[in-house]
Every structure is written in structure tokens, then in C-alpha cells.
Write a structure and sequence with these properties.
The chain has 257 residues and is of the alpha+beta class. Helices cover 27% and strands 32% of the residues. The protein binds biotin.
């Protein structure tokens, strides 16, 4: 059972997670928070569910997470300063916040895999799915959905990247409350960076990314693009170089192999 008091004592934010909803079961925390605009209003609202019946992963995949063992939660973003031209940067904010939290709390070395997977020893410990709604051409509401494998010890099925959990890596069970508060504390700081100094945040992300400089294959709408992963640009797009030609790719529509 998730202990809300224990979580609250460690939460050190002004906004993120100050409105906190705990649910036993929802279809998907992303769907619940994004679609119920009359119920969930304030920026920084966090919805945590012990179980998702239709947990969503990237590229129309499912996200499976054992009940009561892990963290599956979403954060509502409605402040316009975060929803403008550089909205893509929120992917990096989320994965970096998770990576920093795992490193700070457990001294485990993490790596980031583009676009936003968090890995330990090459295995996936967390995934992020950002979804949004728009009014005309402007994003008006966005949810940052985060799934962290915390105390799950066994994973069944086939995965594009082999999963792991913090428990598997450490060899013992850990407190979910502590991880959630640490992630939200880190997120709040990084959110401010996105507006004031995005490059500091991006550089931290680049330092942990295992793919920059590698030859990669990107699959977009059935089309395959090959090249060298040159960098992430200031707007959060991937810069792919093939020969002397470079192009920027929007990862919202892409998968990578
Ligand atoms: C991925 O790596 O494919 C992204 C996984 C994102 C999973 C989280 S769990 C909380 C939130 N609600 C969802 O339905 N998905 C995200």
C-alpha cells in the first residue's frame, strides 16, 4: 500500500504534486488526467494509480506494470510557458528527473535512450509517454505519464528493450514513496530550467545518452531512415546526419531500432 503521508513528508515542491490523487485502478493515468478537464484543473496535479487496466506505452504499445509494486503516474501541465515552441523538451525533463532520482537515492548508474527511456545496465527501468490536447494549433493541456519499475521482480512477455526494476538492480525492495517524491522534487527544478536555461538541462541529458554519435535506424510511418545520431537541437528534435545531409526528426511520430 502506498503511504501518502510518507510521500508528502518528503515532497519539497511548491506546485508539482501539491494536488495529489491516489487511485486503486484507472484505465490509464494519462487518459484519466488528460480527458477530464473539468475535474483535473490545476497545473502540477499528479495522479498515481496502483493499477492501470489500459496502461499505454509509446508507439501504440501497452504498458504492463504489476499492481502495487511499481509507480505509474501522470502529471498535468497547463501553464502556457511550458506548452509553447519548446514543448518537446518536456520529454527530456521527465526522463532526466527519473534518472537523477535513481542515481541520487540508490547510486545506480543510469543511461538515457532516445527519446525518453531510462536504462540501467542496458535494461529499461522507466518509460515516459507525453500526450496533449490542442485548441486550434496551440497545445492547451498536456500530461507527462511516467512508469517506473520499482519492486517488480519478474517480467513476462517479449520486449523491445529488456526490462529491469530498481529492486532487481539493488537486490532488495525499496520505498515507492521516496522515489515518487524525489522524482517530483527534481521535476520541479528541471521545469524551471526549461524556460530559463534549456541548454543546462539538455547537456545533462546528453551526458547520459548512450546513442549520440552512433549509427541509428529510425522508422517513421513505415519509412526507414538511417544515419548518425548527431545531436538533439534546441527545440528537442533529433538531428540525423547521413553523408553531408542533416535532417531534424520529431520523435513524437517515430520509433527507433
Ligand atoms: C513507454 O516507454 O513506452 C512509455 C511508457 C509510459 C507508461 C506510463 S505509466 C503512467 C502513464 N499512463 C499510461 O497509460 N502510460 C504512462
Amino acid at each position: 500500500m502506498f503511504d501518502i503521508e510518507k510521500f508528502d513528508i518528503k515532497l519539497d515542491t511548491d506546485i508539482i504534486g501539491r494536488h495529489f490523487i491516489y487511485a486503486e485502478e484507472v484505465s490509464s493515468t494519462n487518459v484519466e488526467l488528460l480527458n477530464n478537464r473539468d475535474v483535473y484543473i490545476s497545473h502540477g496535479t499528479v495522479l498515481l494509480a496502483e493499477n492501470q487496466t489500459k496502461g499505454k506505452g509509446r508507439i501504440a504499445k501497452k504498458w504492463y506494470s504489476a499492481r502495487n509494486m511499481n509507480l505509474t503516474f501522470s502529471i498535468l501541465v497547463t501553464e502556457s510557458k511550458f506548452l509553447g515552441r519548446k514543448v518537446n523538451l518536456l520529454n527530456y525533463v521527465a526522463s532526466l528527473a527519473v534518472a537523477l532520482s535513481i542515481e541520487n537515492l540508490y547510486q545506480l548508474h543510469t543511461e538515457l535512450k532516445w527519446p525518453n527511456d531510462v536504462l540501467i545496465r542496458g535494461k529499461k527501468v522507466a518509460g515516459i509517454l507525453i500526450e496533449s490536447t490542442s485548441q486550434g494549433s496551440n497545445i492547451d493541456r498536456l500530461v507527462m505519464g511516467i512508469g517506473i519499475n520499482v519492486n517488480q521482480a519478474l517480467f513476462q512477455g517479449s520486449f523491445m528493450v529488456e526490462p529491469t526494476s530498481i529492486k532487481i538492480e539493488l537486490g532488495h525492495t525499496v520505498e515507492r514513496e521516496k522515489i515518487l517524491s524525489e522524482v517530483l522534487n527534481n521535476l520541479e527544478g528541471l521545469f524551471e530550467n526549461v524556460v530559463s536555461s534549456p541548454n543546462i538541462m539538455l547537456n545533462e541529458w546528453r551526458e547520459r545518452c548512450r546513442m549520440i554519435g552512433d549509427r541509428i535506424t529510425v522508422v517513421n510511418d513505415g519509412k526507414t531512415k538511417k544515419g548518425v545520431f548527431e545531436d538533439i537541437d534546441d527545440n528537442g528534435f533529433l538531428v540525423l546526419r547521413s553523408g553531408d545531409k542533416t535532417e531534424t526528426l520529431h520523435f513524437g511520430e517515430l520509433s527507433i531500432r
